[in-house]
What does this fold into?
Amino acid sequence: MPILAALLRRCPLWAALATLGVLANPPGASGDPATVDIVAHDGLALGATLWGAAAPGPGILLLHQCNRDRRSWDPLAQPLADAGFHVLTLDFRGFGDSRNAQAWDFETQSAELLPAFDDDVDRALEFLQSLPDVDGERIGVLGASCGGSMALLLALRHPEVRSVGFLSSSASWIRPTDLDAFANTEGVAFLGIAAEGDATAANMARQIFEASDSPRSRLILYKGERHGVPLFDQDPNLVDAIVAWFRAGL
It folds into this structure.
């Protein structure tokens, strides 16, 4: 154990991860992923992956859609880390590695699991902000579908979240009063992405973009009906566009 203690003293980021239980390799060079557990309020271990940047800088939280898991963000997490962001991808409870005997399948337990999502996301944000190399006041979040809705609501709860991206988000728990609140989030930039044929999602993206007072807010609409991360297959330049948008704002 003395050797381990010495390693932890020499690497503060590794030490911070160790307190939560590192399940895979610690972060090394830019983009090297580390698998971590984030403990939820009820003790559930939420699976997450941290993609460390090569130097101190902003943090970005990525939230998956509700028919995928955190691994769907791997093609974006790497370029974001290469661009200098510390990136955390999270499995919602009932997905991926965020399962136990009580939370094992979101598709059949959504009514039970959804109420805990807000707190789970808050804990993931708290973990990201606590890392020694992350500037806790320079935080962005991006989500797809239900994860985009969670990203939007996170920004209402945490004013330090200044850049919010959402792909194909139109979940029913985004209420008209929430849309009004987005119009009053002074200085927060929004990146709304959707397909025109995914009409409800496209309309929400337009509403939030038009209500925003930030000159950095941007709206990207595509032809067709693709929903969420499949839009990356439609536009090979979308990853670069998202990276550039975060770099301009964080």
